[in-house]
Each structure stands twice: as C-alpha cells, then as structure tokens.
Amino acid sequence: MNSIVHTANQNVREDYVPGAADFLALLKPRVMSLVIFTAFIGMVMAPGEIHPVIAFTAILCIAVGAGASGCLNMWYEADVDARMKRTADRPIPAGRIDPQSALHFGVALSTASVLVMGLMVNVVAGALLLMTILFYVVVYTIWLKRRTPMNIVIGGASGAFPPMIAWAAVTGDVSLDSIVLFSIIFMWTPPHFWALSLFACKDYEAAGIPMLPVVSGEAETRKQILIYTILMLPVTLLPWTMGFAGPVYGVTAAVTGAVFLYLSATLYRNKDIPTAKKTFFYSIFYLFILFAVMGGEVVIGRMI
C-alpha cells in the first residue's frame, strides 16, 4: 500500500491546484450516471409512496456513495491506472490530485452518504449502501481484481445493488422483486465488461490485471460472453413473468435480448475488435432500455 501511494506521489504536480473538475473525475461520473438511473427506476418500481424530499435524498446518497466508491477505487489503483493507456489521465496518475487527498475525499463522502441515508431515509437503505461501498472497495478492488479472472463476476454485485437500495428507501425492506432487479444487472455485468476487456486486453495485461482474456485467452472470453448472455435472458424476463412489469416490457426484453444474443453469437464466431466494441456499447443501451421501459410502463400504468 505504501509503495502505491509513494509511486503516485512522485507524479504529483506541485504547481497545479486541483479544481472541481478534478474531484468530479474521481467520482467516475459516467458510471455514476447509470447507477443513478437504475436506482431511480428501482424507486419508481417499488410499491408504496415516498416523500419527494426523502426520495431526492435517497438518490443523492446513492450517487454520492457510488462516486465515493469510484474515488477509493482510483486511490487504491493509482499504480495500475498509470500503466493503462485508458486510465493514465485520471487525476491521481496524471498528478493533478495527490493520493492522500483522494483517500480523505472518498472516505468523507462514503461516511456522509451512509449516515445521511440511515438517518434521513431508513436504516435498511443505509445498511445496504454501506454494504455496497464496502463490497466494491474491499471485496472487488482490494481482494478480487488483482487475484482472479472471475473478479467481475463476483465484484459486479456492487453495481447491481442501487435499485435494491432505492427500493428499500421506499419500502424499508428487501423483497423478491428488488432481488430480481439486482439479478438483471448482476447477470448483465460479466458480458458487458468482458466485451470491454477484449479490446482493452493489452491495457489489462500491461497493468498485471488478470482479466479473463489475459488469463484464459480471447476465445474463452468470447465463449463466456455467449454463455452469460444466454443465462441472462431468462432473468430479464422475470419482471414480466412475475407480474411487476407489463407486456410492453416483456416484448422489449425479448426483442432487445435477442439482439444481444445475436451480437454475442457473432462475437463468438468472429475475432475482430469492432464486434467486441459493438457488443459493449449495445450492452449499455440494452440495460438502459430495459430499465427505462420497465419504469415508464409503471408510471403510465399509475397515471391511467
């Protein structure tokens, strides 16, 4: 740990004063935006009512907690980020923010988000948020990521918790329906990130991260993407079959899932980077449209 901090500190630019944009970058805003969206849909899907101020507070706490997790991830992985072209310009390896400041910033935001969630929303939502932050930082970042190619399979759970947290913010508990929302994101994460790892493989190899294509090869990675896509599709239909999402969602899940399966099968047969990129970017659209239609259908149903 000391060697990580020492190495990063050597790159700190003493003549540079970090601004708001640098601290915002520590929060991984692009990742945060998807977290906020899935959490919001989880809140919309939850039965019962929640005061708008409490709802806003809950979403804000989830966003801040997610950002804090990203910040602590960047702090711990400053040495890895410096060796990867894709991440070398992040604030710590680029020398715009020193690791100690990033650590303090991440811990402060984590603590504040959990305390506010627990005190102003409810204890269950606060406990779930704390578990999510610890899972991402301790289990995924510190324990799994540098040790096993299955890092993203297990560690991906951290990105699947937000709709469950938002659900708990409304209801005060965890139900089977909220576990299904968690499961959709959990099963979606491996094919999504493995598609990314196919065209970022050299970066991961240079950084010493045992992502699946680095350890087991690209052919095995393409096979696992196809397998996990097949396993994911029935899970995405559960909201419809269980009755808490309507037929429009069911059709959308079936059609967009078929496209995802087609891309995964094409990627399995082909060895080109463009197909991997197409699969990766489609996966983002896919998750967005699933949750958008699910939430939109519920909102419209309540209005009529």
TrEMBL record:
What does the record give under GO molecular function? protoheme IX farnesyltransferase activity
The pathway to which it is assigned is:
Porphyrin-containing compound metabolism; heme O biosynthesis; heme O from protoheme: step 1/1
Could you say which enzyme class this protein belongs to? transferase
In its UniProt entry, the species of origin is given as: Paremcibacter congregatus
Give any extra note attached to this record: Carbon 2 of the heme B porphyrin ring is defined according to the Fischer nomenclature.
Q: Where in the cell is it found?
A: Cell membrane
Descriptive protein name: Protoheme IX farnesyltransferase
Record's keyword terms, sorted:
Cell membrane, Heme biosynthesis, Membrane, Transferase, Transmembrane, Transmembrane helix
Where is the organism placed in the taxonomic lineage, from the top? Bacteria, Pseudomonadati, Pseudomonadota, Alphaproteobacteria, Emcibacterales
* Keyword Glycoprotein tagged: no
What is the membrane topology listed in the Swiss-Prot or TrEMBL record? Multi-pass membrane protein
* EC number(s) reported in the record: 2.5.1.141
What's this protein's family per the entry?
Belongs to the UbiA prenyltransferase family. Protoheme IX farnesyltransferase subfamily.
